Amino acid sequence: MSEEDDDQPEFDLRWADRAEHKEPSARARMLAARWKENPPEPVPFRGEPERGGPRRSSWVSTTIVLGCVAAVILLLGWTRFQAPY
User: Fold this and answer.
1) C-alpha triplet 33, 39, 44: angle, nearest 5°
2) pLDDT band, residue 69 (cuts 50/70/90)
3) 32, 24 Cβ separation under 8 angstroms
4) In degrees rounded to 5, what are phi and psi of residue 67?
5) What residue ranges in 1-85 does DSSP mark as E strands?
6) Rounded CA separation 10/76 (Å)
């Protein structure tokens, strides 16, 4: 190998971007083959959100979190009160 070969980049990205034909990715080829046989159902731009179950309001969640924090504080204070010095 000569020194000139070391200065040459292994892959010229600008040259690749100027290519007239670009091959699709493997995922794009797989989806195209799958959709030829079984095309996907049309989906609205913003579909309806799926509800898994009843949602709690934000104040209920906040109350639960604050209650847990207060319980931990009280438990830590109680254990410190019970511990001998």
Assistant:
1) 130
2) very high
3) yes
4) -65, -40
5) none
6) 63
| C-beta contacts of 61-65 below 8 A and 24+ residues apart | none
- Tokens representing 23? 């091959």
Count other Cβ atoms within 10 Å, centred on residue 31: 13
Q: Is the pLDDT of residue 67 over 90?
A: yes
By residue count, the chain amounts to 85
Q: Which residue has the tokens 């070969």?
A: 5
CA–CA separation, 31 and 26 (whole Å): 9
Kindly state the DSSP code that residue 18 receives in the 8-state scheme: T
pLDDT digits (tens, 9 = 90+) for 20-45: 877 889 999 999 999 999 998 887 77
Structure tokens at 13: 């990205």
